[in-house]
Amino acid sequence: MGFRRLRAAILAAALGVVATPALAQQQRPMVWGDSLPATLDPHAIFDVPSQFVLLNAYDGLYRYQGNPPDLRPWLAESHTTSADGLSWEFTLRAGIKFQDGSEMTAEDVVYSFRRLLSMNRAPAAAFSPVLRPENVTATGPRTVRFVLSSPYAPFLSAIPLVAIVNPRVLAQHTVNNDWGAAWLASNSAGSGAYRIDPATYQARVSMDMTRFADHFLGWGHNQRPIEQVRSRPVMETSTRVLALLRGEIDATDSYLPTDQVERVERNNRTRVARDESMRVFIIRMNNRKPPFDNRDARLCFAHAFNYEGFNNTILRGLVVRNGSPNPNNLWGNPPDLQPYTYDLALARQHCDRARAAGAPLDREIEVHVQNELEQTVQAAQMYQADLRRVGVNLRIVPNTWAGITGATGRAESTPDMWVHWVSTYFVDPENWIGQMYDSQFHGTWKASSWYSNAEVDTLLRRARASLDQAERQTLYQQATRLVVADSPDIWVYNTLNLRGLSRRVQGYQFSPVGSGGEMRLMSLAN
Amino acid sequence: MLSYVVRRLLLALPALLGLVFLTFVLSRVIPGDPAATLAGDAATPAQLAEIRAQYGLDRPILEQAVIHIRQVLTGDFGRSVFSGRPVAEEIGQRLPATLELTFAALFLSTILGIPLGLLAAVNHNGPVDHLVRLLSVGGLAMASFWLAIMLQLVFSMDLDILPLRGRVDVEIGMPPWRTGLVLIDSLLAGRLDMFWDGLLHLVLPAVTLCLPGLATIARFTRSGVLETLQKDFVLYARAAGYGRVRLNAIYVLRNAVNMVVTQIGLLFGALISGAVAVEAIFDWPGLGTYAVQAILSADYKALLAVTLVVGVVYAVVNVLVDVAQALIDPRVAEDAR
């Protein structure tokens, strides 16, 4: 007798009941095994796990859906922009209700943006350079106006980052003018398709959600919506995969190790959803630190990485070669751009030239890896062996995300090299090349190569300010050509998101923003 | 006895204070910026600076240490820089899981380790002794993460008789919170289904965790019993006609077990540190996984609180062990005067 049958028998005996047909029909909750964010407050943090809460418990004015991501009106039914690009006006749909039953108005949108900008945490970074809290105003019961201090083309692209919260709920829990932040860290106050049960919430361990039947978009699109979602992050990769195979969870995270793909697909209860994302794997170089202040030295490193070996052998071809800062599947890339190739003879030539120019290539170079993310270690190990063949001694330093990003505030403390991904926070080249190579972002982890090129700065700033899409496209293409020629970093691949799923999960739709975690679209087969 | 207990508790205080200071300094000099964790991925340098100022992270380390110790003395562990929630609240949610697992492992180690050690000693150099020695060496040498995965593969995946991970089944859920210990809370709630479910979930992690402890206790019991068997009183007892079983199980074991009791106290610390790997693999939401997550996210407030809580639990358990020793052998309390 298997464990489940044994348990069912004991359960029945213990409860003294016999399972009825109705009970047998009851839907087992969706068990989601992906990570939970640090806090449930959507204005306090913005990272990949927090998008799960944002997509399910909250709504924004616009939302990305599909792949490639399509920006769709969500709470807003439309928007207008002034000719100078400074004034943006959004019109809310009628009849939107928060989960407490109260109606959403333009004042609630104003409150949400003012809360975001006043708290000034991570998601505010996309707006704070151009938007002040007092410049968000309600011009009618359903219209909101944003007046920017300077034209900012990615404004609309960043709008989905902002969850609209219920000020009436937060007012009851505000302490010392904290905007209800302490309370909202473990509760929710939104209008989203799923309601978080705060009694079951345990940071990083569990979060239960129940379907919100009165969601403003209704449920006509889904005949069998998921009633209960149990979010149960599984810490260890091996346990996560076993839990999926055994049916204890219905979905893994979307970074299933490539060596587990075949195993999951072999099981008749599970499958792997493969979707090209917008998440670029990068090996950073600190361009302020010798030898990386020398272009030849950087080119030497660019030609010494075995892209094909890493992408096709170690990662089993489950990624796509990406030779520039922007993901391949995003606009703004020059169509004829040639990525760097693995060529040790060429690498040697560049290294020799750099040495002749005085670049200290004989010193030990440190590459910091995120120890808990195996791919970063694998890439560094492979690179170490190849660099040794061109006379460069690479030392691998285990570190953590917090450890590395905490050090990138200053060029002196930024590691020589480090390995990471740049994910999709909003879908615009600004999210990648804009924030990575415009020198005004020095001090942030995204700009941690400390690259500086006045011509690139000018192009990126013009692209940021222009509302003409064709012009922006041309400007980003020009900037990309210059950046790639300077080789400030090593761009390796664009991620193919791999999420292990139970076959009972239907309607899973991947989008690079949120990684397919939108429960509203899914259903569960019997 | 009471003054003995009070004396032992007072001796633990300076050690705990030193622990708080040392861990604070260590947590602040290792690489990692709590402000970066708190601010999230997209933060600007200005936002980071604001957070550092808000949390006092820009002050000299010694000043931060003094402030921290003052807060801890008033029972304030601060807020987690990762979640923004009170650390005391988060630890309150996690500690029972670790205690339940650790005590279960300690219980298994003791009830299996002592009889095995006794059997090995009374069969000195016989097949049973060799077998127990083999088990002991294996138990100490085996990596817990390897054993955990093997147990998962065999008992959860192949035989399908025990759960793979977690404390409870997602459909059954946790019993109403009273102590945070699933087994006790489910009994208090009169839910035998939950008790059984919790017990099944406890088996594999507890077995994995108990093995090194079991080996240690078996080895110490064996050597203690062997030593005691050489004592004159054993010879006299045999001459007086005491039966073998009665003599070994009562008189010899009682004299030999004192050293084992000391080991149990020390083992408790080892079990808590061993729980880190076991909790991670079995997805057991205890202090071990909490500490790992705190390290990865540079959540120094959480890390400091975990260290202190483990230190306090360790100190309390060792006082209990001292008391147990004094009860088994009254000479211990006499000597301590």
TrEMBL record, chain A:
Keyword set, alphabetical order: Signal, Transport
Primary site of residence: periplasm
Domain of life, per lineage: Bacteria
GO molecular function, one term: peptide transmembrane transporter activity
Cellular component aspect of the GO annotation: ATP-binding cassette (ABC) transporter complex; outer membrane-bounded periplasmic space
Signal peptide: 1-24
Keyword Disulfide bond among record annotations: no
Record-stated family: Belongs to the bacterial solute-binding protein 5 family.
Name listed for the protein in its UniProt record: ABC transporter substrate-binding protein
Organism whose genome encodes this protein: Rhodovarius crocodyli
From TrEMBL, chain B:
Membrane topology classification: Multi-pass membrane protein
Subcellular localization, as worded in the UniProt entry: Cell membrane
Molecular function terms, GO-annotated: dipeptide transmembrane transporter activity
Span of domain ABC transmembrane type-1: 95-321
Keyword Transmembrane helix (UniProt): yes
CC annotations in GO: plasma membrane
InterPro entries given in the database record: BPD_transp_1_N, MetI-like, MetI-like_sf
Annotated keywords: Cell membrane, Membrane, Transmembrane, Transmembrane helix, Transport
Transmembrane stretches, start-end: 101-122, 134-155, 199-221, 256-282, 302-321
Pfam families: BPD_transp_1, BPD_transp_1_N
Record-stated family: Belongs to the binding-protein-dependent transport system permease family.
Protein's name in the database: ABC transporter permease
Annotated source species: Rhodovarius crocodyli
